[in-house]
Design a protein that fits this description.
Layout: H1 8-15, H2 20-36, H3 38-77, H4 82-96, H5 100-122, H6 125-128, H7 134-159, H8 163-171, H9 176-206, H10 218-229, H11 232-260
Helix pairs in contact: 2-3, 2-11, 3-4, 3-7, 3-10, 3-11, 4-7, 5-7, 7-9, 8-9, 9-11, 10-11
């Protein structure tokens, strides 16, 4: 029998994430449209460029806060203290039952009004003259909503770890907090990486809803360009392609994290 030598290039190609091909295709399509038909496609890209940064910034800050708040929510859901478990459960059920768009509108329009009313009643000047910051309210709204979903992701990940892990850690003299932080959570985080990545991609797409509360993200900038130039097809096709690039890149990053955090069970 002939000994077949493996080709390193072929092996590397087989291990490569094939979805990068789609990323390259979409990027090339954007470049081609901007180069061969700069009016209007290049003008659209330039006009919404600052909105791309706002979309990315809003998504990243919100997601980091979601990871933290969701962890507390998940721990609250499995807490042995009835009051804590009850509060966490009510929060998750209520927030998941209200559409994100309604929550964003509440945080931008209703919440400042409530603070102003309280300021008038209690004589707190800072509350009475409070003016909502669109970006801050958008981040709070996204965080408050998605943390409820992330709480369930954390809860499922923690409960998937065998109870013997906690018992073994406690038998070695660890406190509950130490065992949770050093033993349970690291294993749970590896288990929940796929759903966490999916939440990030979904959050990136849903960030387009912040355009309704005066945040100049990519969607709002697209609406402004369309209103000024009356070319809806070209405008929204380019905006859609830009969103697609962002989501594909986010998905590829999550896939890379999953591959580099796998461990033998």
């Amino acid at each position: 029998m002939k000994h077949q030598t493996s080709n390193p290039l072929i092996e590397r190609f087989e291990k490569m994430d094939r979805w990068w091909v789609l990323v390259v295709i979409v990027v090339c399509l954007i470049i081609m449209l901007a180069v061969f038909k700069p009016d209007p496609y290049l003008r659209i890209v330039r006009f919404v460029a600052d909105g791309i940064w706002v979309t990315f910034y809003t998504t990243m800050i919100s997601f980091l806060l979601v990871l933290v708040l969701g962890l507390f929510g998940g721990l609250g859901r499995i807490s042995k203290v009835p009051i804590i478990r009850g509060i966490a459960s009510v929060y998750v059920e209520i927030v998941r039952g209200i559409p994100l768009l309604v929550q964003l509108i509440f945080w931008y329009f209703a919440f400042p009004s409530l603070l102003q009313d309280l300021g008038d009643q209690w004589g707190i000047v800072s509350f009475s003259g409070y003016k909502a910051n669109p970006l801050a309210m958008a981040i709070i709204g996204l965080t408050f909503c998605y943390a409820a979903y992330m709480s369930e992701v954390y809860r499922a990940g923690i409960e998937s770890i065998p109870k013997g892990q906690m018992e073994a850690a406690r038998s070695l003299g660890m406190t509950y907090v130490q065992a949770m932080w050093h033993i349970i959570l690291p294993q749970a985080f590896r288990m929940i990486l796929p759903p966490v990545g999916n939440e990030f991609v979904t959050l990136l797409k849903d960030s387009s809803l912040v355009s309704v509360v005066a945040v100049a993200d990519m969607t709002r900038r697209g609406r402004e360009f369309m209103a000024a130039n009356f070319i809806p097809v070209e405008t929204w096709m380019m905006v859609a392609l830009l969103y697609l690039v962002l989501t594909l890149l986010a998905a590829r990053f999550v896939t890379w994290l999953e591959k580099n955090s796998k461990y033998e069970r």
